[in-house]
Amino acid sequence: MQSSYSSFSEKIPKHNLFIFMILQKLSLLNYKNFEAETFEFDPKINCFVGNNGVGKTNILDAIYHLSFGKSYFNPITTQNIKHDEEFFVVEGFYERKETPEKIVVSAKKGQKKIIKRNGKTYEKFSEHIGFLPLVIISPADRDLIIEGSETRRKFIDGVISQGDPNYLNTLIKYNKVLAQRNSLLKYFAANNTFSQDTIDIYNEQLHNFGTSIFGKRTAFLEEFLPIFLNRYKSISSGNESINLVYESQLQENDLLTLLQQNFTKDKITQYTNFGIHKDDLVFGIDGHPIKKFGSQGQQKSYLIALKLAQFDFIKNHSKTNPILLLDDIFDKLDETRVEHLISLVDNENFGQLFISDTHAERTEEVIKKVHQTYKMFPLAP
What we know:
Helix content is 42%, strand content 22%. The protein is of the alpha/beta class and 381 residues long.
């Protein structure tokens, strides 16, 4: 039975009163490996423990789903439905600004996914982004280092969007025009035709949307970089020099000029070769790419610092303590660094924390060293 909102709030220490967003209860129906399950949470620390394959990460992903309307690990909706079932439902009961909020994400095969807030369906998923700020730290984050630039652009966009809905809307419009321009280039090639007026219209739209996005990404990096450097320093035992550099073609020239000057190349490739969709972040350590020259521990520390800086940035802009998910955080991190990471939440600057790990005793031993309430959730096959 759902616990009352008032009694739940009373469990929060008085010095943490500015933490005004917590997930009280999570209900899963046909979600991944869960047929039907309900969890009621502590307002501070919650730990899911058990062997690999029992669904620890799936629970964290369900919480992520409630904030973003999609899975962090598998964006294909139908693959998040339990095998041999036709639909899934994820329900989250929150307290936000001392007000109860119910978020439901549901999907049925052959139909569009639905997100509801207090019984009302969102017309656009983008309207929900940022309402429930959240940051996840996972071994899957290594994709930020090893994958292509698109993965790193999504990271930038995800951070900015949680605090700036106008940015997300502009990005959606840019990507729509970009797809239309690319289709037009293919049409020109297939039909041996050309319309300068039509290209000019798309160029102008890409320029306007792209310039706005470039400006916000630039401003974001200027604010984000010192936060990130400070976070890395606090969790790293080494003295290495790390850096984070934003690279964009718009640093060379305005987008309209770039599109006009390079149209011949676009016609040949049937693709728009210049724009903010080519932006990238360069991760460096001691003047070299961390992908090639960073140790496994350095890369892990870099990514955790990146995500904690994301937490700080979102908190500053949303005026809300994001929910923090730590998925298999002991993986490739020594216990000392894990203890330091967990100790970061032992203050009023963090809100609610969810952890997954394979060793219950190890997790509880570390959690007990901080002075917060917690709840353990042992999971079995």
